[in-house]
Amino acid sequence: MERVLVTGADGFIGKNLVYALLKEGIEVYAIVYPGNNIYTECDNEKLYVKCLDLNQVMNHVREFPSDIDVMYHFAWMGVRPEYRNNLDVQMINVNMTLDCMKLAIAIGIKKIVFPGSTNEYLYYGKPLNKDAVPSPSNAYGAAKIALRYLCSDYATRNNIEFVYAIIAGIYAADRRDNNVIFYTIDKLLKKEKPLLTKLEQLWDYIYVDDVIAALTAIGKKGKGGAVYAIGHGDNWALSNYIKIIHKKIDSSLPLGIGEVPYVSEKLPSSCIDLTDIERDTGFKPQVDFEEGITKVIDKIRYEREKNIE
Fold first, then answer.
1. Do 69 and 98 belong to one domain?
2. What stretches in the chain show pLDDT beneath 70?
3. In this structure, what CATH number is given to the domain that contains residue 190?
4. What element of type H or E holds 262?
5. Burial class (CB in 10 A: 0-12, 13-18, 19+), 166
6. Domain containing 253: what range?
7. Which residues pair with 163 in a beta bridge?
8. Is residue 283 part of a domain?
9. What is the C-alpha to C-alpha distance for residues 80 and 139, in angstroms, rounded to an integer?
10. Which of 30, 100, 157, 208 could lock onto 9 through a cystine, CB 3.0 to 4.6 A?
11. Up-side HSE of residue 34: CA atoms within 13 Å toward CB?
């Protein structure tokens, strides 16, 4: 893998992937949204930034070389909860992604890595692998699943290797999400009791460095037609993660596990089966949850102390 194209290179995963690939000496064509070039201070000679509206990408075919090995497609609008059932926004994603497929065909890209998330499989009930049955709960998830199959078919008919990656819950020191992990950290650092359900749902979390290592391994060694689940593989009850956070911050503080009732008897799950990615690429996660979440807690503490000063 010598030359890659990354769409959505101004997003969290895209940005981290771009910098990791550059460190390996890989040439990167990074597509960012117009007006959002986050690479203005990067002087790496192997980085080529393209500020493009991907809905118009076919007007820019000549700006790309004809020997790109891999395209990572991360560009996506309407990820935030308030947009996930906005059909107009999700249809923009569908058309944009199909235009990216046309670009891949036009310039002879050899492999496409298309990411999904465990959110499209929350009620499958088993660790996710190539046999997982989708269960999208909104327009965002339905669009992702539809494009998985549309793009796979499109790629196969045009002799492009297509790899689908299902990514577990990502966490990082420089990322803040509206989920139970960050809610609990926020409350405990404020010396307040987090109010929680019993947290019996089985879940998996993966630190961003391991996500990037997995994606890089897939680009280099992933097999066309494969479905790879990316995670740490712990598949613990959510309460286990919360108890680790509690211990790391202050185990003497009250922890309100079980004080909030479930909104439904049917519990989601987000578990990962690493068998296929380990076998085909050799990927193994390196950052366990205790190590990774310590980095997150330390960073949040530092930021709060700095603001107080």
1. yes
2. 308-309
3. 3.90.25
4. none
5. buried
6. 176-203+237-270+289-308
7. 113
8. no
9. 12
10. 30
11. 6
Residues 151 and 219 in one domain: yes
The answer to whether the beta carbons of residues 20 and 88 sit under 8 Å apart is no
Parallel/antiparallel/unpaired status of strands 111-117 and 161-167:
parallel
Residue among 164, 165, 140, 135 nearest 151 (CA): 164
Smallest CA-to-CA distance from 245 within 183, 195, 304 is with 183
- For residue 309, the model assigns a pLDDT of 47
Amino acid (1-letter code) at residue 177: D
Same domain, 59 and 187: no
- Give 296-305 contacts, CB < 8 A, sequence gap 24+: 296/171, 296/172, 296/173, 296/185, 297/185, 297/189, 297/245, 297/248, 297/249, 298/173, 299/173, 299/174, 300/185, 300/186, 300/189, 301/189, 304/189
Judge whether 245 and 299 are in contact, CB under 8 Å. no
Q: What is the pLDDT of residues 105-144, one digit of tens each?
A: 999 999 999 999 888 999 999 999 999 999 888 899 999 9
Measured distance CA(309)–CA(302) in Å, rounded: 11
Predicted model pTM: 0.95
d(CA 307, CA 309): 5
- How many domains are there within the chain? 2
